Every structure is written in structure tokens, then in C-alpha cells.
């Protein structure tokens, strides 16, 4: 069984994960073909080598046109439904967004169908999720294990106003 271990001592973001997957051997062109198939205009993933504190890493950047579109789960499922993904990749991406919708619904006390993704419905997040799912699939990863994530403290401003960290 091929296992991916994510050492999240400094946290993790979608771009960090995509860079790590390309660094681990995922073909950037293959990932971009999957991203292109989403039909989201102006989307592209680039990866460059960077150095931080004497260490090298692959930094991924999602390039997308600015948008103000907030999406519902059904909108994201339509995007995934028309994309050129394998059935496994599509199902996994759908499962990620369904779980996010369930968490949002629980926090807001609403039905999953009513969830209105703000930051999570943005093109960048859709690309992060699809890119990660495709990357893990192309590497043949069967199980993902992650270290604890430092959540920090304080407050952060999001679409719902100022909330505590970690957010609900």
C-alpha cells in the first residue's frame, strides 16, 4: 500500500500541497490538463523552485481570473461532472466538496443544499482540490496520513465577518 505522509508542522495550504505533489513526481502537464478540463477560464497552475531558510521546495501558484462568484455544492458538482477526470478522481473530488458542505451546513444550521460556499467556492479552491485529488491518484497513493495541524489563535476576517481561530 502506497501511503502519503503530510508533515504539517507549519500548516498546509492547497498551493503547498500541489507543490509537494509535483515535487514528489506528479507531471505538471497532466495536472494542468485536468485543471483545464474544469472549464474555468484563465486557470493555470505553475510551479517554481524556491529556497527558504536554506531548503529548496516547489512552490505552486494557481493563476485564475478574479471572480466574485460564490457557489453552491450543486454548482461545483456540475463543474466536476463535465471535467475530464477518471471516475475515481471525480468521486474523490466530489467527496471532498460534500464533506466541506456538510461541515458548513453543521456550522450554520442549514441543509447541505443551502450551503453557499464563499472562499471554498472560489476557482483557487476548486483547482486546489482537483489538483490534489489528481496528484494523489497519479502517484498511486492509497492512504493519506497527516500530522496534527497547528491551528493558531486570535481572529481572522472571512466572508462571515471576524471569527476566532480556529474558525468553527
Description:
The chain is α+β, with helices and mostly antiparallel strands. Helices cover 40% and strands 23% of the residues. The protein contains five helices and eight strands; from the N terminus they run βααβββααβαβββ. The strands form four sheets. The chain has a two-stranded parallel ribbon with strand order 1-6. Strand 7 (155-158) and strand 8 (161-164) form a beta hairpin. Helix 1 (14-23) runs parallel beside helix 5. It starts with a strand and ends with a strand. The mean pLDDT is 90.
Q: Please state the overall shape, judged from the principal axes of the Cα atoms.
A: globular
Strand portion, in percent?
A: 15-25%
Helical percentage:
40-55%
Number of helical elements: 5
Largest beta-sheet details: 2 strands, parallel
Compressed to H and E, one letter per element, the order equals EHHEEEHHEHEEE
Classify the secondary structure makeup into a structural class. alpha+beta
Biggest sheet: strands side by side, in what order? 1-6
Keywords:
two-stranded parallel ribbon, 168 residues, alpha+beta, globular, two-stranded antiparallel ribbon
Write the layout of secondary structure elements.
Blueprint: E1 3-6, H1 14-23, H2 28-36, E2 44-52, E3 55-63, E4 71-72, H3 73-82, H4 87-108, E5 116-117, H5 123-139, E6 143-146, E7 155-158, E8 161-164
Parallel strand pairs: 1-6
Antiparallel strand pairs: 2-3, 4-5, 7-8
Amino acid at each position: 500500500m502506497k501511503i502519503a505522509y503530510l508533515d504539517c508542522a507549519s500548516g498546509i495550504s492547497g498551493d503547498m500541497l500541489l507543490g509537494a505533489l509535483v515535487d514528489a513526481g506528479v507531471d505538471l502537464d497532466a495536472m494542468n490538463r485536468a485543471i483545464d478540463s474544469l472549464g474555468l477560464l484563465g486557470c493555470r497552475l505553475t510551479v517554481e523552485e524556491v529556497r527558504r531558510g536554506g531548503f529548496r521546495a516547489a512552490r505552486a501558484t494557481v493563476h485564475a481570473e478574479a471572480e466574485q462568484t460564490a457557489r453552491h455544492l450543486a454548482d461545483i458538482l456540475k463543474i466536476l461532472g463535465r471535467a475530464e477526470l477518471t471516475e475515481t478522481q471525480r468521486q474523490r473530488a466530489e467527496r471532498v466538496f460534500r464533506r466541506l458542505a456538510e461541515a458548513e451546513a453543521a456550522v450554520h444550521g442549514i441543509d447541505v443544499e443551502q450551503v453557499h460556499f464563499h472562499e471554498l467556492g472560489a476557482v483557487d479552491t476548486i483547482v486546489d482540490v482537483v489538483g490534489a485529488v489528481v496528484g494523489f491518484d497519479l502517484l498511486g497513493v492509497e492512504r493519506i496520513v497527516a500530522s496534527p495541524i497547528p491551528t493558531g489563535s486570535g481572529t481572522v476576517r472571512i466572508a462571515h465577518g471576524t471569527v476566532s481561530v480556529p474558525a468553527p
